[in-house]
User: What shape does this take?
Amino acid sequence: MTAKKTGTLNLRVDPALKEAARIAAIREHRSIANLVEWLIRQHCEAAGIAIPEQSELFKEPDDE
Assistant: This one.
């Protein structure tokens, strides 16, 4: 199995929002990064936004 690639997302938020995210992540037994990823996936699903598979984004050349 090929390891999944990850991307970096740097953003600035209000300190109170960061603290709320930290508390929410603890309650959900997640890291803040995983909580943000999960929230984005939830939003995209609710809004009908397709999330492409990594294989579609990072196509490898054929072995032929």
Residues 15-49 form one domain. The CA atoms of residues 5 and 23 lie 27 Å apart. The chain has a mean pLDDT of 88.
